[in-house]
Structures are given as C-alpha cells and as structure tokens.
Amino acid sequence: MASPDKKAFLLRIDPALWAEIERLAAAELRSANAQAEYLLRDALRARGVASKTSPTATPKESAPPSRREGLGRERP
Known about the structure:
It is a single chain. By secondary structure, the chain is mainly alpha-helical. The termini are far apart. It is 42% helix and 0% strand. It contains three helices and no strands.
C-alpha cells in the first residue's frame, strides 16, 4: 500500500530502463519504486540540489562499509 505522505503519479518509462531499475532494486533489496526514488535523490544530490524534505540516508542508502571507512586507505 502506498504511503499517505508520498505523491503518487504515473510514469511512462522505457521497458528496458525499468528492467534495469528492477535489477538494481533486487540487488540492493529494495522495491523498484524505492530504487527509482533513490536514483532520483542521488541525481539531485549529484547536481547540488538538496531537498528540504529529503530524509536522511537509511542504512540501505548509505555507502557500503568499505566506502564509509575510506576506500583506498590501508588497513593494518
């Protein structure tokens, strides 16, 4: 069931693109809808646009531990 605090809308999208979103979603244990929202937020962040209502990153959205710890640093 849709969250009452989220905007519902129809989207026409290329079937091949949607299939890739579904593939990514499955790999990251998200729904296709959550994956599409994540990709849109990531695209806005990349452009320097910050949403005032954007929630903080959830554990699924945050970088993997290797990236959080500083990729490229040598470990003892």
